[in-house]
Input
Amino acid sequence: MELSRREFLKGAGSAAAGGLILGPSLLDRESKAFAQGSQAADPIVWEEILYQSCGVCDNTCGLLAYVKDGHIKWIEGNPADTLGGAGKACIKGVSAMRNLYDPDRLKWPLKRTNPNKGKNEDPGWVKISWEEAFSTIAERFNESMANYGPESILLIARPKDQDTRLQKAIGTPNQVCHVDTCYITHEVAWMAMVTNGGRSWTMDLENAKYLLIFGWDQPGKSMQSHERGYFQALEKGAKAVVFDPRMSLTASKADEWIPIRPGTDLAVVLAMMNVIISEGLHDEEYIAEYTTGFDKLAEHVKQYTPEWASQLSDVPADDIVRIAREFATTKPAIIPTHKRDAGGPLYANGFSMAQAEIIMCALVGSIEKPGGYYLDRKPKVRSMDEFAPVTYPEMKEKRRVDGQHLFPLANKKRKGAFAHLAQGILSGEPYKVRVGLAKGYNVLSFPNPDTIIEAIKTLDFLVAVDILPNEMCQLADIVLPDVQFLEKGGIEIREYHALWPQIMLRQGTGALWEEKGWGSIVNGILEAMGKPEFKVDWDGLEEAKLQDAGTSMEYLESNNGIWEDKKDPVSKKEFSTPTKKIELYSTVLKKEGHEPLPVWHERLTTPTTEYPYYILTNHLPWQRMGRTSNDPILTEIQPENFVHMHPDTAAEIGAKESEYVIVDSPTGNSLKIRAHLTRGIRRDCVMTEHGFGYWSKALQVAYGRGTCDGDLLPERRIDDTLKTYAYNAAMSNSILDVCVSLRKA
Amino acid sequence: MADGRHVGASAEGRAIARAVVYRFMSCCFAHPDRELLELFDSARLEEFLRSWRYLGFGTSEEIGRITGWQKEFASHDAALRELQKEYTRLFVNACPRVVAPPYSSVYLGGQRRVWGSSTAEVARLYESAGLSMAKDFHDIPDHIAAELEFASYLIVQQCKRADNGTDGADLADIENRFITKHLLRWAPAFLALVIECSRTTFYQVMASLARQFVEQEAKRFSEPRHGTSNSGNTQKLGIPPPSEEQHANHSYD
Output
């Protein structure tokens, strides 16, 4: 028996020689893997240095990604980005290629074949085409719109351009993101009292001489813009005083750490205002020029004495007086804030604290001044709707499933409430949402995740868009793969710490598989829904924004990947409030029925015999939740989370270092977690780290490590949040306003 | 094959048979579509079987099952759905884990990742053979299906050169390096995982046949006339099949 190569190679239809071979031959099939004939092709193994803007956290530090052997081998900071890492990249940034090359990543659209959803259900994924994914989504969305109205569609997504386009084209009010558990208090307070932009993220820390800090710990989260500014200030001799129930990384580097009772920072600040004003230490000139409402404030804070605040906060009255004097007389002085600090949505009085922080900075003249806060200086570029104008359908239903419409100021930011969402979905009030899409959000980001899991299971249909097959994907009917930032090209307009206008170039490696960017996904869904008029040329939009800023891709490519209009910020004296001044007494808050001046309110919960300890949370400097949690090397640094407690607290329950203990929460959940003993925490507090407890078995590294702190934190009912309406314009959800108990495992 | 000009009839036949088997296997480890089903309905299956026998493989249980696996399903559509589901589970995304990521770098280089140095190695070999990836391939160069097709391509090109009377030594060298220094270093471990964990007859059978073939290739390339020393190439990499227990004690290598 002989095979003839000639018979094989003759091509299709070759006759059988000796009855051995039947054509056409397998060898004539066209290749799917390799380029054919003279088709122009890119090299597979290339070398280049790519400009990038980091996508791990909001700090968007400029990066250089070194491509060697056809893949990114090394990442470091781009020295030209002096607003970000200034040539440094944090460990999360330099690790980003392990997320890019993670074999667990989502690669193609997936469809679930197992109708049962839950923690122990294998979704039974099958790879499908984008066409099938889009047409399935469009069919389910259109069906829901036709039967139950556009409001029956829920988008769990950030209000960025793409998300907003999809939301407005559909006409649903329900676009819900996480900020009620993040920075909404700061945003609404700044919006009401200072500026419509409402973002307190741009601080001239390095020129500050006195940093008064209430729980702020950006250095402990490796947020480089703030971290760099903090340490530069300290190097230049600034004094830092940190009020925090535990010794954060920021506190560990400060001149003073004051272990305050959690949720009483507001009392201390109110008393400090009283000291500053009654002793005439405030900046009269600045107050006259920049602010309104001083007299009402002066009268209001007289009731808050240092002795009174001391009783509440465990901070000695002498220290309150001394620090108030130091703060007012060591200029420039600033209270840095961001996200989940004492002015964040941690406790019921968080919004009042955010208000108070603005007032304190105004009293010493450090808003729109060197060493203080600046309003962001983003480049003036056209918006998506200006670039691609379209008439959106009228949004008939304005009530939202998370109740945000009941809080008009928070609703202006249209960001929603994670803590209310489970109740909103499960109660079917004010109406039932039927289908959903979650973009880049995991169920573990919600307080008490089990309730949102139950709620999401009641949806008829869910789409999840993400990079890794996390828990949200486990519950989805269709899973869509998003591109990782290192694959993505385009530009990044700096939002965070924009002391001056800056645009960074993104040079991507291109998608490894068939992932699509979020803009393309939105266009695909709109097209399939029969709404092609809402599609946006996203690349064209970026080009237009570059033009508006007065630059171009070519400029970015030949100028270190960065365009900036670098100039010293000139102080603005006009603000976008009704009086055009910084309103110490806020007419905007007053108009909406909120307290125009910060009034002392206790937190909702205090220790009881049953639950004797305050709970605190934090996340590790080298982790950024889902973006890093499946990274083997970062996980090796600390494979599971701990509950930090004072040795005396540990002694009460007989726990030793690294032994397992049980933390019980009023949510009904109990976490088994290792104890870490430290004197850097109050005896009545325990602290645990966020970013653990993943149960998606499709995450090989992250799966099953540690516990989810969210299990200890209660979801909220809209009715209960409404009870705090007078002092909670932001509809913050008091995420840490809960106490827990401890026992030995 | 090192020479290419002096192949005897049986050597040349063997080359063709190897090319057919590589290409057939490549089709079987690509994402299953209608073309794959047609492969098993058409003369191409016969072509594969003849090539298989030509390489000296006897009738085995797997060969018996290769024609029968479709009968387990009510229809072509049902068969395709099941294969696609299993393909996704084995090679794309799955719970509790992607069973056998079909990329060399996951098995070589000590890091569980895609696009490792072994990917670059094999991509360089593609380039040295004048190939680049198709624009619509949308996958990583060291995907098992691409690698198996590459082997087939190299053999066919050498046969064509021999036909034209041109020298194929450079291609023979690439083939030798590719198979001994790359493919044989990871395919056994990958196939072992598929054999161990597949829930469908199709992938069990195909992986099992592929393993037999790869073992023969290993022997073939260790014969002295290939002039290469490749001690250790045939050794299995010893990655044990996954178990829940192992998962719980996951280490990072």
User: Anything to note?
Assistant: The first strand of chain A starts at residue 48 and ends at 53. The CA atoms of residues 616 and 687 of chain A lie 4 Å apart. The first helix of chain A runs from residue 5 to 9.
